[in-house]
Specification:
129 residues; mainly alpha; 0% strand
Length: 129
């Protein structure tokens, strides 16, 4: 009964995948930010496991793609946030991305502009890759 709802999520996932790829190829080039390597996040390999039946293989393919796309998009957004607003929130946030803990504290205004430039410099392609 839930299958149509579960698999209908492929539409927004593909949309996110395509639009985030276009976004980073345009915007990250403009701001000299290292682009995120999609293949590091979207890994499709469990379908070759011989002990899975066809339905399980398809489910693994679907979940690998979905989780990979969301992780890929999250890293793109994390780099965007680091470039434009590397400031922690005033209250604790659950499930922050991997870059968040290095951000400036809320209200930490001393040398803010210089700090932002350091965060931006760290995103340059030669610094990440």
């Amino acid at each position: 009964m839930s299958i149509p709802f579960i698999y209908s999520m492929i539409v927004p996932l593909v949309f996110i995948d395509i639009t985030m790829t276009i976004y980073q190829h345009i915007c990250f080039r403009l701001y000299n930010v290292a682009r995120v390597n999609r293949s590091h996040y979207v890994v499709i390999d469990r379908h070759v496991l011989s002990y899975l039946n066809a339905i399980e293989k398809f489910n693994c393919l679907y979940c690998s793609y979905g989780n990979g796309v969301l992780a890929y998009a999250r890293e793109i957004i994390a780099r965007t946030e680091q470039y434009w607003c590397p400031i922690k929130h005033a209250r604790k946030v659950v499930g922050t991305h991997s870059r968040y803990n290095q951000f400036l504290g809320f209200g930490e205004s001393e040398n803010y502009q210089e700090q932002v430039l350091k965060f931006r410099d760290a995103l340059k392609p030669e610094k990440i890759e």
